Amino acid sequence: MATLTTMVDALIQQASGQHSALANTALDGQVLGLGTKHDHVTHTDPAHIDRTVVNQVIDSALGGLAGSDMHENAFAQPERQASFMLKLIPLVLHWIKQQGGLNQALQALRQQGLEAQVASWVGPGVNDRITPDVLKDLFEHSSIDALAQQFGIGADTVETGLAVVLPQVIDILTNSRNEDWFHADIETNNVLTRLNHL
Question: Which Gene3D superfamilies does the entry mention (predicted)?
Answer without folding.
Answer: YidB-like
